[in-house]
């Protein structure tokens, strides 16, 4: 199996995982944590405790979201997409160990600063353990697929979340009252922008980190993925 096809398989596997109950919930918390921490940092509420084991839908899904709330959520979703692209860049230069070390480091910082609820704390510890075990025992055959899969999962989750946000906002278009309808317009614009950039991020990854063909209007060249 060549390198390009291998990464496509990882992306397909990540999508399938997002459809499997319990496993989907467990892995999605990683994405949720990244998203929520960015919201806390952008919103300037560094002392806020973060809850992970609940349904977050952030952008225009609360009863009366403000434009500031939606904008902060949009920035957080955007930053998470950039993280996914960054992880694929590390994959492209074979820095599999670094990906796991970065995620372990981030999870450790999040535990210290923002996670206070027992179940969230238990999840974070279990996730760190799953990443640390192959590093500790030097399981080369496990480290590489784990790193690639996590990069693929975060990218797929970013695109699916953008689709979900657009769907939720579209369903909210029938809210009663002029004020509610007026507030719906900028929310929809942000949601469509989020969806567009998420799809573009997927296209960017495919063009530059999988098939290495660059973008049609630019001459961006990245290191080609190693044979897997």
Describe this structure in words.
With 228 residues, this protein is mainly α. 72% of the residues lie in helices and 0% in strands. The chain contains 7 helices and no strands. The longest helix has 33 residues, at 178-210. It is globular. The chain starts with a helix and ends in an 18-residue tail after the last helix. Residues 55-63 and 213-228 have low confidence and may be disordered.
Q: What assembly state would you assign to the polypeptide chains in this entry?
A: single chain
**Cα-based radius of gyration, to the nearest Å:** 18 Å
Distance between the termini: 7 Å
pLDDT average, as an integer? 80
Q: Report the major sheet.
A: none
What is the global morphology?
A: globular
Record field, number of beta strands: 0
> Number of helix segments?
7
Class by alpha and beta content: mainly alpha
H/E element string?
Answer: HHHHHHH
What is the helix fraction of residues, given as a range? over 70%
Poorly predicted regions are 55-63, 213-228
Strand content: under 5%
Topology:
Elements: H1 3-17, H2 23-42, H3 67-92, H4 96-113, H5 118-137, H6 140-171, H7 178-210
A few lines on this structure:
The protein is an all-alpha fold and 228 residues long. Helices cover 72% and strands 0% of the residues.
Features:
single chain; 228 residues; mainly alpha; 0% strand
């Amino acid at each position: 199996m060549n390198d390009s096809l291998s990464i496509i398989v990882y992306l397909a596997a990540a999508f399938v995982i997002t459809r499997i109950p319990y496993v989907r919930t467990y892995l999605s918390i990683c994405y949720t944590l990244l998203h929520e921490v960015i919201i806390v940092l952008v919103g300037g509420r560094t002392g806020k405790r973060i809850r992970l084991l609940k349904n977050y839908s952030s952008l225009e899904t609360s009863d009366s979201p403000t434009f500031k709330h939606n904008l902060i959520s949009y920035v957080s979703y955007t930053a998470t997409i950039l993280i996914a692209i960054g992880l694929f860049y590390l994959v492209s230069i074979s820095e599999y160990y670094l990906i796991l070390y970065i995620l372990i480091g981030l999870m450790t910082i999040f535990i210290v600063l923002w996670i206070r609820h027992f179940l969230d704390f238990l999840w974070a510890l279990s996730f760190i353990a799953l990443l640390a075990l192959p590093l500790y025992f030097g399981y080369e055959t496990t480290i590489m697929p784990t790193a690639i899969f996590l990069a693929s999962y975060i990218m797929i989750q970013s695109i699916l979340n953008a689709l979900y946000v657009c769907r939720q906002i579209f369903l909210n278009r029938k809210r009663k009252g002029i004020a509610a309808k007026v507030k719906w317009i900028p929310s929809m614009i942000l949601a469509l922008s989020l969806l567009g950039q998420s799809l573009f991020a997927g296209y960017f990854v495919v063009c530059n980190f999988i098939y290495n063909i660059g973008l049609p209007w630019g001459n961006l060249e990245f290191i080609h993925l190693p044979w897997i």
